[in-house]
Write a structure and sequence with these properties.
- The protein is an alpha/beta fold.
- The chain has a single domain (8-466), classed as Alpha-Beta Barrel (TIM Barrel).
- It has helices spanning 15-18, 59-73, 84-87, 98-113, 129-135, 142-158, 178-182, 193-217, 239-261, 266-274, 285-289, 339-353, 382-400, 449-459, and strands spanning 8-12, 77-81, 117-123, 164-168, 222-228, 232-234, 295-299, 304-306, 357-361, 370-373, 376-379, 405-411, 431-433, 445-447.
- The strands form four sheets. The protein has an eight-stranded parallel beta barrel with strand order 1-2-3-4-5-7-9-12, surrounded by five helices.
- Strand 10 (370-373) and strand 11 (376-379) form a beta hairpin.
- Keywords: Glycosidase, Hydrolase.
- One of its GO terms (molecular function) is 6-phospho-beta-glucosidase activity.
């Protein structure tokens, strides 16, 4: 077994979790700047000093050092996002911010200096705060126009530097975290299903419009959707559990189905009917949705179980719901670890869509301890190596199954601030960043043991996984 010869090995970050410089060079505030505790805590009205994302890992000023380290590992691709509020500080301006545009010019140039292809997420959980407060985020149809202006601006600027684009990060996560994902300012417990799914419609139209514009402006570019994958197993063979699982899966499949097929599936039309949800289509929406993606990308961290029997519900299965799987262990943050679930979801998406697939997030958040070994500071993160190795071997199995897998960018290839908890102690990277949750630290970078392991994986195109 082997990986494809042109397999795109690399790593992934998001602007809001690593850049810092939240108010420099004309950048406006985004939704992340008022969530000092991630999705686990309330938002604030203004940025507060305890928000770790305001500094991040100072990637904004240190990107050259970091890209050089990625190149040393042998990265073929580097996934990052563009901070919308660096380009349009409020989101609804007519004219972009030149200093923001220049930063990404410089970043992409630095990547190309080492032969690294940028993979760019257009909107990654960082809606301009002004759009959230003033328009209630994607609930408002005006967001499509603001997004279109932003998209046309960055496509025109970076069209010759970026081959791979993703329209929205984990677009289906808006069902679980509407403020984080969709910039929806209405509190989650007060948000109606009608408004939530109307916001979903606006995002799906915007995504398809971006795909259409991208194909027109950049004929050689590849534009994909990005989905939070959540393989879901029936807790028991009981048919009720199987149907409950199917209904749960449908809510996530809805997003991929529209992106790939170009229309609303029948199962969602039934859901809307039975829940008195009436999606307002404007003239032309159905035609816009027909602009389908070139590939399907997704994150994979965990699987969940579902059951129709409330008596079997004993605790929350994972970050986004479900019930615990009795056959799986969990990370320090309670995310159940299921390497075989990655092979399963790759086969599932391939069978469903017959589009190239790209794993753009996967990794283990863990507490790392910086130690000195042979006079060099490092982290002995064998637990991370074990996690990644088991998952990558399942990717190889999926390739052998006949799945077309474009590449793999592990999440948080350099330590960054967690989206879910806004902590730095929850580390994912191959590179340790000396910064602590109390804000102390030098921000120095240190190579972990996994740095050299991943370098070897890339150099051998996965053959070292079998050693």
């Amino acid at each position: 077994m082997s990986f494809p010869k042109k397999f795109l090995w690399g790593g992934a970050v998001a602007a809001n979790q690593c850049e810092g410089a939240y108010n420099e060079d004309g950048k406006g505030l985004c939704t992340q700047d008022v969530t000092p505790h991630g999705i686990v805590g309330p938002r604030t009205e203004e940025p507060t000093p305890d928000n770790m994302k305001l500094v991040g890992i100072d990637f904004y000023h240190r990107y050259k050092e970091d890209v050089k380290l990625f190149a040393e590992m042998g990265f073929k691709v580097f996934r990052t996002s563009i901070a919308w509020s660096r380009i349009f500080p409020n989101g609804d301006e007519e004219t972009p911010n030149e200093k923001g545009l220049q930063f990404y010019d410089d970043l992409f140039d630095e990547c190309h200096k080492y032969g690294i292809e940028p993979l760019v997420t257009i909107s990654h959980y960082e809606t301009p705060l002004h759009l959230a407060k003033t328009y209630d985020g994607w609930v408002n149809r005006k967001m499509i126009g603001f997004y279109e202006r932003y998209v046309r601006t960055i496509f025109a600027r970076y069209g010759k530097k970026v081959k791979y684009w993703l329209t929205f990060n984990e677009i289906n996560s808006v069902l679980h975290e509407p403020f984080l994902s969709g910039g929806i300012y209405t509190e989650k417990d007060k948000l109606s299903q009608q408004d939530l799914y109307q916001a979903v419609h606006h995002e799906l139209v915007a995504s398809a419009l971006a795909t259409k514009i991208g194909h027109e402006m950049m004929p050689d570019a590849k534009i994909g959707c990005m989905i939070l994958s959540m393989p879901t197993y029936p807790l028991t063979p009981c048919p009720d559990d199987v149907i409950k699982t199917m209904e749960s899966v449908h809510k996530n499949d809805f997003f991929g189905d529209v992106h790939v097929r170009g229309y609303y599936p029948g199962y969602m039309k039934r859901y809307f009917r039975e829940n008195n949800i009436e999606i307002k289509f404007e003239p032309g929406d159905s035609e816009i949705l027909k602009n389908t993606v070139d590939f399907v990308s997704f994150s994979y961290y965990m699987s969940i179980c579902e059951t129709a029997d409330p008596a079997h519900v004993k605790g929350k299965g994972n970050l986004m719901g479900g019930v615990p799987n009795p056959y799986l262990e969990a990370s320090d943050w309670g995310w159940q670890i299921d390497p075989q679930g990655l092979r399963y979801v790759l086969n599932y998406y391939w069978d469903r869509y017959q589009k190239p697939l790209f794993i753009v997030e996967n990794g283990l958040g863990a507490v790392d301890k910086l130690v000195e070994k042979d006079g060099v500071m490092t982290v002995e993160d064998d637990y991370r190596i074990d996690y990644l190795q088991k998952h990558l071997l399942q990717v190889e199995e999926a390739v052998e199954d006949g799945v077309d897998v474009m590449g793999y960018t592990s999440w948080g290839c350099i330590d960054l601030v967690s989206a879910s908890t806004a902590e730095l102690k929850k580390r994912y990277g191959y590179i340790y960043v000396d910064r602590n949750d109390d804000g102390t630290g030098t921000l120095n970078r240190y190579k972990k043991k996994s740095f050299y392991w991943y370098k070897d994986v890339i150099a051998t195109n996965g053959e070292s996984l079998h050693k």
